[in-house]
């Protein structure tokens, strides 16, 4: 019996010694790798871009003819702006300049009106859903209105006029830098007097355009 107990104690000693030796061996596990966190997208930053679309609207020659028909044609240009994100809300400012081929046909007296360029300076307010941003916008608009009335000394008046613009749009950030979108603007360039004609010209039109911007 004594021999049996001594043999058991010796066996336990050998097991304990083996376990201690195994604990001293180097671990076969690889090094602990720190987790990689994907940076959260933010709309904050400056951006520049280009746009193109279509415009349509009305022209009123008050005192000459009530309306000379529809104003429509191509628009295209560029934009620059800045966004600042606070939580889910995004506020910003943007300026754009557009070349335009917005013109009417000729009225019954040969009169016609054309807008060759316009621009806007606007505030923007939106709600961000990660990379998706719906927004509203509004501000100041300016442009030229070329008025031609045959037989008048000032039949090719290209002077500036100014008014306001309001609209809305949606944007999506394809990458952290590349942003695409679609935007609608209503532009009212106000009225101007045509010297020598006793006529006021009022021009307003809508624009739908696709946008592509690069955010820094």
Q: Helix proportion of residues, in percent?
A: 10-25%
Uncertain segments are 8-16
Going across the biggest sheet, name each strand in turn. 1-2-3-4-5-7-8-9
Which word captures the global form?
A: elongated
Radius of gyration: 35 Å
Q: Could you give the count of β-strands?
A: 9
Spatial separation of the terminal alpha carbons: 86 Å
Average residue pLDDT: 82
Query: Count of helices?
Result: 1
Residue share in β-strands: over 45%
- Characterize the largest beta sheet: strand count, sense, and whether it forms a barrel: 8 strands, antiparallel, barrel
Look at the helices and sheets and give the structural class: mainly beta
Order of helices and strands: HEEEEEEEEE
Walk me through what this model shows.
The chain contains one helix and nine strands, in the order αβββββββββ. It is mainly beta. An eight-stranded antiparallel barrel has the order 1-2-3-4-5-7-8-9. A hairpin with a 2-residue loop joins β2 (70-86) and β3. The chain is elongated, with a radius of gyration of 35 Å. The protein starts with a helix and ends with a strand.
List keywords for this structure.
216 residues, mainly beta, eight-stranded antiparallel barrel, 1 helix, 11% helix, elongated
Q: Summarize this, please?
A:
With 216 residues, this protein is mostly beta strands. The chain contains 1 helix and 9 strands, in the order αβββββββββ.
């Amino acid at each position: 019996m004594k021999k049996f107990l001594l043999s058991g104690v010796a066996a336990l000693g050998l097991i304990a010694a083996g376990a201690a030796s195994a604990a001293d061996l180097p671990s076969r596990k690889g090094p602990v790798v720190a987790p990689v966190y994907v940076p959260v997208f933010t709309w904050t930053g400056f951006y520049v871009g280009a746009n193109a679309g279509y415009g349509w609207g009305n022209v009123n020659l008050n005192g000459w003819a009530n309306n000379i028909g529809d104003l429509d044609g191509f628009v295209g240009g560029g934009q620059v702006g800045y966004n600042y994100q606070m939580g889910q809300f995004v506020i910003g400012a943007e300026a754009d300049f557009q070349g335009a081929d917005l013109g009417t046909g000729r009225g019954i007296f040969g009169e016609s009106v054309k807008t060759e360029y316009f621009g806007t300076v606007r505030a923007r307010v939106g709600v961000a859903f990660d990379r998706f941003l719906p927004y509203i916008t509004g501000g100041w608009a300016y442009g030229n209105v070329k008025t031609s009335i045959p037989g008048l000394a000032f039949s090719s008046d290209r002077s500036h006029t100014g008014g306001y613009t309001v609209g809305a749009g949606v944007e999506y950030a394809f990458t952290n830098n590349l942003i695409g979108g679609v935007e609608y603007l209503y532009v009212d360039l106000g009225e101007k007097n045509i010297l020598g004609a006793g006529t006021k010209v009022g021009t307003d039109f809508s624009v739908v355009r696709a946008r592509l911007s690069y955010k820094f």
